[in-house]
């Protein structure tokens, strides 16, 4: 697997600026993940025969909430502002979660698979980039990445690739995630 590690930026304060980008985008991603799972769970919860998927979504949401809380603490400790896109990401993530759940369980799982495949690579790139500079944060990112991979694998095991228009759905979600990452790093 190839990783795209950015070249170090020149100039005073460049390392801090890059770490700010990493924390900002990771916070935004975990925030969105919590909202996606929350919206999916809301669609399935209380519906006949959907207790299992609602329970699984609740567990994944809880893991993402732990990640989110950690990034919120890091933003505060390191005095990094969150992305200004948070209100838009709130709407987009909730709509993505609800929309895929309304398409059915397999589409909800396809959403998870697509999102987590992008996030796994994103975290792997960050781990490679900051491993020497901030080994403690790199270790946390590795743990988070492993948990995201477990969500990815769970989605595949539960039929993500059987979703209606799987390739199209997956492709659109991946492009959306990659775009949100680039935007959230910067603003």
From TrEMBL:
It comes from the Bacteria. This is Demethoxyubiquinone hydroxylase family protein. It comes from Brevundimonas nasdae. The lineage of its organism: Bacteria, Pseudomonadati, Pseudomonadota, Alphaproteobacteria, Caulobacterales.
């Amino acid at each position: 697997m190839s990783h795209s590690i950015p070249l170090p930026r020149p100039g005073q304060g460049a390392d801090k600026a890059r770490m700010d980008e990493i924390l900002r985008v990771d916070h935004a991603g975990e925030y969105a993940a919590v909202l996606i799972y929350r919206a999916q769970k809301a669609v399935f919860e209380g519906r006949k025969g959907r207790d299992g998927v609602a329970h699984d979504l609740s567990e994944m949401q809880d893991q993402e909430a732990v990640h989110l809380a950690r990034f919120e603490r890091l933003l505060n400790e390191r005095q990094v502002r969150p992305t200004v896109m948070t209100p838009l990401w709130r709407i987009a993530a909730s709509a993505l979660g609800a929309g895929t759940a309304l398409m059915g369980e397999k589409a909800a799982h396809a959403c998870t698979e697509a999102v987590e495949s992008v996030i796994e690579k994103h975290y792997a790139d960050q781990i490679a980039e900051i491993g020497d500079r901030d080994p403690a944060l790199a270790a946390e990112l590795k743990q988070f990445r492993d948990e995201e991979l477990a969500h990815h694998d769970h989605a595949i095991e539960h039929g993500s690739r059987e979703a209606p228009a799987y390739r199209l759905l997956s492709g659109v979600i991946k492009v959306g995630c990659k775009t949100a990452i680039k935007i959230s790093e910067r603003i």
